[in-house]
Amino acid sequence: MSSQAEMPNGALNHHSHIVVVGAGAMGCYFGGMLIKAGHKVTFVDVNPEQIATINTRGIILETDDGLHQMPATAALAKDVSVPAHLIILFTKTLHTNVAMASIRHVITPTTVVLSLQNGLGSAERIGHFVNADRIVIGTTLVPADLKEHGYVVSHGPSKSQIMDASLKFPAWLSDVEKLLNKATLTTEIEPEISSVIWSKVAFNAALNAICAITGTTVGRLAVSPCFRELARNVVHETVLIGEANGVSLDECYIWNNVEMAINEHPNHKPSMLQDIEAARATEVGAINNAIVDAATGVGMDAPVNRTLGQLVALTEQVKCH
Ligand SMILES: NC(=O)C1=CN([C@@H]2O[C@H](COP(=O)(O)OP(=O)(O)OC[C@H]3O[C@@H](n4cnc5c(N)ncnc54)[C@H](OP(=O)(O)O)[C@@H]3O)[C@@H](O)[C@H]2O)C=CC1
Ligand SMILES: CC(C)(CO)C(=O)C(=O)O
C-alpha cells in the first residue's frame, strides 16, 4: 500500500488508502463500488459479526446490473494502523463523534474526510477532528438496503453532490469527484452546498419520518393522496425555515426529488425505517428536530416537523424498548 509520503499534497488517486467508517448499507455500497473499481478499501465498524462476515465473504452488491461479490477487509478502528488518504464516513449522525474519535490515529494533516450522511450539522461534528479545509460534505440519493451483513441491495438512478466544507474549492476536490465517478458513483461538485443539504433534509424530513412512523415504503404510501399532502407540508415548512436561515431553496426541485423517489425507488426502505425495524435509535435529531431548532433560532415555529419528530420518538420508544 502506498504511504502518505508518496502522495504529495494529499492527492487522491488509485493508490490511496480509503477507510470507510460504518460498514452498514451505505458504507458497504460505496466501499464495494470502490473495491470493484480497483481501490484499496478498509471497512471500520463496531459490530464484530459484521466485520467477520465481511472478512470471510466480502461485500455483495445487488444492483440494476446484477450481483457482484468482492473480497474485502474490515476491522475495528483500533486495529487499523495504515494512515488514511480518504475517510468516507457512513455511520449514522448520532455516532459521528465516537466514530471519528476512534479513527483519529489514522488521520494525517492531508487526510480528507467525506460525509454524505443525512441531516444538518455534519461539517460541525467532523470539524472537531479535522480542519474544515479537509472536510467534504454533501448529499446522496443512492438508496441502499442492508439485506445481511455486508450484503446491500440498491436499485434505481442516483447521484451525489459534494463540496469542501470551507468552500475554497481546493484542487483535490476534483480528485474526490473523479475517484467516485470512476467507480460509477455518479457525483458532481456543487458550490451551493448549503442549499443541497437543506434540500435533502427537507426530502428526508418528509419521506424518512413518514415511512418510519407508518412502517412502510414510499411506494406503498404513495397510493394515498394524504401522503403527498403531508409530505408537501413538511417540504414547504422546511423551505420557509431554510430560507429564513439564509439558504436559497427551490421547493419544486425538492418536490421533484420526492416524486423521483416515489417512482424510481418505490421498494427502498428509507434509512430511518431500517433503523426502526432494527430497533435502533434514528437520526430524527439531525433531521426533523434539527429543523425545529433552526426555526427556533430565527424566531419561527415548525409545527409539522415538531409533530413528526415526536411521532418518530414515540415509534422508537415502542419498537426499540
Ligand atoms: N441507507 C440509505 O439508503 C441512505 C442513507 N444515508 C445516510 O447515510 C448514513 C449511513 O446510513 P446507513 O448506511 O443506512 O446506516 P447503517 O445503520 O446501515 O450503517 C451504519 C453502520 O455504522 C456502524 N457504526 C455505529 N457506530 C459506529 C462507530 N462508532 N464506528 C464505526 N461504525 C459504527 C453501525 O453499526 P451498528 O449497526 O452495530 O450500530 C452500522 O454498521 C446515514 O447518515 C444515513 O442517513 C443517505 C442516503 C441513503
Ligand atoms: C435513499 C434516500 C434518498 C431515500 O429516503 C435516503 O436518503 C435514505 O434512505 O435515508
Write the layout of secondary structure elements.
Layout: E1 17-21, H1 25-36, E2 40-44, H2 48-57, E3 59-63, E4 66-70, E5 73-75, E6 86-89, H3 96-102, E7 112-115, H4 122-126, E8 135-140, E9 145-148, E10 151-153, E11 160-164, H5 171-182, E12 187-189, H6 193-214, H7 218-221, H8 225-244, H9 251-264, H10 271-277, H11 288-297, H12 303-320
Helix pairs in contact: 6-8, 6-9, 6-10, 6-12, 11-12
Ketopantoate binds at residues 118, 141, 143, 204, 207-208, 261, 268, 270-271.
Features:
321 residues; Rossmann fold; N-(1-d-carboxylethyl)-l-norvaline Dehydrogenase, domain 2; 2 domains; 8-stranded mixed β-sheet; 4-stranded mixed β-sheet; 12 helices; 12 strands; globular; disordered N terminus; binds NADPH dihydro-nicotinamide-adenine-dinucleotide phosphate; binds ketopantoate
Overview of this protein structure:
The protein is an alpha/beta fold and 321 residues long. The protein folds into two domains: 4-191, Rossmann fold; 194-320, N-(1-d-carboxylethyl)-l-norvaline Dehydrogenase, domain 2, CATH 1.10.1040. It is 44% helix and 16% strand. It has helices at 25-36, 48-57, 96-102, 122-126, 171-182, 193-214, 218-221, 225-244, 251-264, 271-277, 288-297, 303-320; strands at residues 17-21, 40-44, 59-63, 66-70, 73-75, 86-89, 112-115, 135-140, 145-148, 151-153, 160-164, 187-189. The protein has an eight-stranded mixed β-sheet with strand order 5-2-1-6-7-8-11-12, sandwiched between helices. Strand 1 (17-21), helix 1 and strand 2 (40-44) form a beta-alpha-beta unit. It is globular. Ketopantoate (KPL) binds next to helix 6.
